[in-house]
Amino acid sequence: MTEHAWIEAHFAEIRPKAIAALNRQFRDLDLAEELFASSCLKALQSWPGKGLPDDPFAWLLTVARNAGRDTLRRQKPADVLAAAPAATETPETGYIERLDERGLRDDVLRLLFVCCHPALSPQDQSALALRIVAGLSVDEIARAFLVKPKAMEQRITRAKKTIGRANIPFEPPTLTERHDRLKSVTLMIYLLFNEGWSASSGEVHIKAPLCDEAIRLVRLLLTLFPSISELMGLLALFLLQHARAKARLKPNGDVILLDDQDRSLWDGAMIAEGKALLEKALRHGTPGPYQIQAAIAAVHADAKTSQDTDWQELAQLYGALYRYEPTPVVKLNQAAAVAQVRGPQAALDMLDPLAEQLADYRWYHATRAGLLEDLHLFGDARAAYCKALSLGPTHAEKRFLADKIAACEKNL
Amino acid sequence: MYYSILIYMADGVFESLPQEQQDAFMEIHRDIQETQAAKGDYAVARLMPVTNAVTVRDGGGPDKAPLIVDGPFAETKERFVGFYVVDCETLDEAIEIAKPLAAGYGAIEVRPVGWGGGVLSTDP
């Protein structure tokens, strides 16, 4: 990893907490973002020469706070600041306070509830949380949502304005509202984990701090809502996935696919906890997409070697997941499992109808390429790998795809 | 006499410590385990977070099925996170073993064992 990438990894770790703290202080998401970005810029000038400060979080936050106070002094008199709308006061303040009472004050969770403001559509909530909490660029979010960057930029700007304008009634939310809001927040945490698990682009392929943060947040939520089986499922999913973290990258940052991972590097304690939690969740008899995904991860965790994987079970679980989430991406995963049970041709037949919807999704092309390769159709496989390479992969994926293309060419 | 050493800790405290401190704490545990293993019988268990637990509770009568609920989620700050059973001559000796565990992180209860048995494999 270059020094620049190394510092960038620190920024990713610090960002959610810093933005949350700055937003709580200045009550302005745009300002919080700007301040954090400019303090990162200062860090990039200062750290490579002087070395990393003892506490990088405190360093960045102090620089950002000072800059923020300067900005406000120039912009508006002190009393305007005092009268600024309390954007962080939401109907959830009540149960977030339960955390405070228990000594678990948490700015990030608070910020997530702000991003999940009911005045925003679910998609806007997600986009905003990915921008604000996970720190993704507009391009990255656009790719995650399979839309054009321009449209995504407008959507995020609109969402911020809505939150800024909204006069949030200070009433306790109804049970349904509470449930919906919790569902949105859970989804945000899921997206946050995904971004850490497989960065959408850039030099760093895995942003482990985002995964750790997501795990921490869902643990907090589960403490607040101990009987929600989908929350248990979500935490189980995270633990079972994150347990593989050490086995996923070569020392040079290249990706190691699940099949080729050294399974002795998987974290046994995390797997045990994940499986125990999933077992407990399933007892509730209220399955849902997170529990099914955790079950999928558990099937992988149970296999001593890649050959031992119960692909039949996986194909069924993906089928069950598709009933909850009828998305082409789930179908794609199901096809990958089906390939192991019924062969590459059966999987390709499942993929063909998805061609249009997933035209810009690089994993679609990479998966298809692998299947074509298995059928020894090296010319078609090469073309599909090239297509994936053109769709903005991370550096580690680029190397993987380049290797694959070279291998196909050798076989042509 | 067997003594149990019961460890209580607030949720999330251990996980939020810096890595070096977590490592140092685990080192204390390794020391205890090595010393006790050299001496003879001992037992140790580290419990998973309380979010993984269920409570089986009396259903309210002999003919009622027991209730199975998530938790325990008592509104307490400190939770039971693990225990040792060690073989000691005196209470003082057991307290000496417990002391390093208390260092700043939690409360340790030392209680004599009335009866003990069973075998645990070290590789669950």
Keywords summarizing the entry:
heterodimer; A: 412 residues; mainly alpha; 70% helix; globular; B: 124 residues; alpha+beta; Alpha-Beta Plaits; four-stranded antiparallel β-sheet; two-stranded antiparallel ribbon; 30% helix
Question: How would you describe this protein?
Answer:
The complex is a heterodimer of chains A (412) and B (124). Helices cover 70% and strands 0% of the residues of chain A. Chain A is mainly alpha-helical and 412 residues long. Chain B is an alpha+beta fold. The two termini of chain B are 27 Å apart. Chains A and B meet through helix 11 and helix 13 of A and strand 4 of B.
User: What is the total domain count of chain B?
Assistant: 1
Report the β-strand fraction of chain B as a percent range: 25-35%
What distance separates the N and C termini of chain A? 34 Å
Order of helices and strands of chain A: HHHHHHHHHHHHHHHHHHHH
- Based on the structure, what is the oligomeric state of the protein chains? heterodimer
Gyration radius of chain B (Cα, Å) is 17 Å
If helices are DSSP runs of H or I spanning 4 or more residues, what is the number of helices of chain A?
Answer: 20
The biggest sheet of chain B, with number of strands, parallel, antiparallel or mixed sense and barrel status, is: 4 strands, antiparallel
User: Which chain pair shows the most residues in contact?
Assistant: A-B, 18 and 17 residues
Summing up helix and strand content along with how strands pair, one would put the structural category of chain B as alpha+beta
Mean pLDDT of chain A: 83
Overall pLDDT of chain B, averaged?
85
Give the ordered list of helices and strands of chain B: EHHEEEEHE
Model regions low in confidence, pLDDT < 50 over at least 5 residues of chain B:
none
**Estimated helix fraction of chain B:** 25-40%
Question: Can you tell me the overall shape of chain B?
Answer: globular
The fraction of residues in strands of chain A falls at under 5%
Count of beta strands of chain B: 6
In terms of structural class, how would the helical and strand content of chain A be classed? Answer: mainly alpha
Coarse morphology of chain A? globular
Major beta sheet summary of chain A: none
